[in-house]
Amino acid sequence: MCQLLGMNCNVPTDICFSFAGFRARGGLTDHHRDGWGIAFFEGAGVRVFLDPAPSAASPVAELVKHYPIRSLNVIAHIRKATQGGIRLENTHPFQRELWGRYWVFAHNGNLKEFAPALGGRFLPVGTTDSERAFCYLLDHLAARFPQGAPAPAALHAALRELALEIGRRGEFNFLLSDGDWLFAHCSSRLCYILRKAPFAVAHLADEDLTVDFNQLTTPDDRVAVIATTPLTDNEAWTQIPPGNLFAFHDGLPVGLGETRTVAQDFPRRLPDNGRAPDAE
């Protein structure tokens, strides 16, 4: 499966540490070699880096790894192609404008025979099921809320309804952000960690790199990191139960709607070794 990485913070923060481990999954510690991308929100703008080459060997990824871009919301993706060729236009994350704001989307999964009718305002440039799903989401949001962006609770309810609908076609793990909120939908596997005072020392699972966040933060900082599988091997990550859409704002998950539990009560903590259960 593809790999997702998201970050939501209450103060602009760089993602260099998490990205160092995440990048290794694109051809070094895992077999996802079909391109990668990352998007940083900066005010009303978005800075996007895309490359159809493996992230572990990408000079663009090397630049991002050492480039401390500070952002409140970040979405990154490493691709394992299922639909669409290995080309730049098929590389996540995808970007569109809605209600005068940029929206960024990345998907993990395979939506089989997903060919919905689209209204025309949002059309895919590439040939992936992921970009079609993104356009479908925005089409329906624009039609449902023609006067502009709705309240967060109404937006969450609409997104969750659409996510469950699209998810009937296959795995539909995704990250979506407008630069203010970050939405994370778990269809099969997605987890997160909250970092806030007192901060801990973290060690990457995919690279021998350790950081003491006490040296890089203030007591008021909050950072939520979302990933397909845990990026560190010495922290307790929380698994998002499949079928749930989580909303993150100011570095915290915010309850905007009813939580749906699957198999066990929410939330479920991952083991201390950071490995997700095989049953997911």
Automatic annotation (TrEMBL):
InterPro entries: EgtC-like (IPR026869), GATase_2_dom (IPR017932), Ntn_hydrolases_N (IPR029055). GO terms for molecular function: transferase activity. Keywords: Glutamine amidotransferase, Transferase. The keyword Transferase applies. Pfam families: GATase_4. It comes from the Bacteria. This is Glutamine amidotransferase, class-II. It comes from Thauera chlorobenzoica.
